[in-house]
Model the fold of this input.
Amino acid sequence: MSDAWFKEQIAPDGVAEDGCHPDEAQALQSYLNNKTTAQETAHAITQPILSSDLPDENLHRLWNLLQDALIELPATYIQPLIDLLHAIQDLPDPDLTSNPTEETRPPKDAFTWKGLPDFGHLWADIYKQDNWRNDLSATLSSSSSPTTSSADRLQKRHQLRAAHIRKANIEARLAVANIGSIPLDWGYDAIADALELNNA
Done:
């Protein structure tokens, strides 16, 4: 596994404000290299959030890291990543009252790892594709660039289909594992869509 992928997660396109905390990337890399267990990694990867002034406002950086890993890293890492998400979800609720910046934090009972707060919402915003059939059709339509060959359009169609299948597989596995509040009805919608149309 390339160190470059983890460096890019810390500073996407060279912008550190958009990335994850370096300790989060290091914890994930160690875990995926089988140097730590899911439970050890869950504690390590969440420490930067718990150390921040407003933990709930920094969750998206960790969720982006883990969601990008699910989508971009080799498929052999999907189950270990789901195991890690389960371990994070099972962490005890943090005691945030001992931090000196307590007055800037939400109430103690407002922050919990249970259900992975906002994980499902972020997934829906970034990765849930309701118009994937339209994207597939567009690659073969006459509206495609005139310089694009039919073989290139067909290859692009296969790439889009493979990406959609992977995302659907991950969503299904997250739903079955009861992780991140991924609703089961997304699966029903996908099945209904597939049954209604046969040109996918």
